[in-house]
Amino acid sequence: MKNGNFNTYLHGRLKNKPKKVELYLKYAFKDYAKDGELKFLLSAIRDVVKVYGICETARKSGLTRQGLSKALKPDNEPKISTLKSILNAINYNLTFNFYKIKKV
Fold first, then answer.
1. Do residues 87 and 45 touch, judged by C-beta distance below 8 A?
2. 19-65 pLDDT, tens digit each
3. For FRET with 100, which of 1, 53, 62, 80 sits at 20 to 30 Å CA-CA?
4. How confident is the model at residue 103 (pLDDT cuts 50, 70, 90)?
5. Any alpha helices (H) in the chain, and if so which ranges?
């Protein structure tokens, strides 16, 4: 499947389906917690932002369209406050759970 076809397929699977969006983001955050690969997390958030609309998400997050695009570039390391603003704009809340890591 070519990249353009996959993006179209993914957009269709997520559009107007908040439960699927929630699962998609949930697994993206779980993977990030496991492997620390920020670029894949940003890619998942970017996918969802495209479903919600880039201009609308930028407006709701208080970012410019260019600022939103820059924040979600794979090679970027956005501030937590920026990610929180973006996630709030697409109706999700970023929270943290702290726990002690067991040494092996």
1. yes
2. 999 999 999 999 998 999 999 999 999 999 999 999 999 999 999 99
3. 80
4. confident
5. 3-14, 18-35, 38-52, 54-61, 65-71, 80-89
Task: Name residues whose C-beta falls within 8 Å of residue 11's C-beta, 6 or more positions apart in sequence.
Answer: 47, 50, 51
Give residues with Cβ within 8 angstroms of 20, minimum separation 6.
13, 14
- 3-state class (DSSP) for residue 50: helix
Model-level pTM?
Answer: 0.85
**What are the structure tokens assigned to 3, written together?**
């990249």
Task: Say which residues have a Cβ less than 8 Å from residue 92's Cβ, sequence separation at least 6.
Answer: 22, 25
Phi, psi (rounded to 5 degrees) for 53: 105, 125
First to last CA, the chain: 42
The model's pLDDT over 65-76, given as tens digits with 9 standing for 90+, comes to 999 999 999 999
User: Does the CA dihedral 49-53-54-59 come out positive or negative?
Assistant: negative
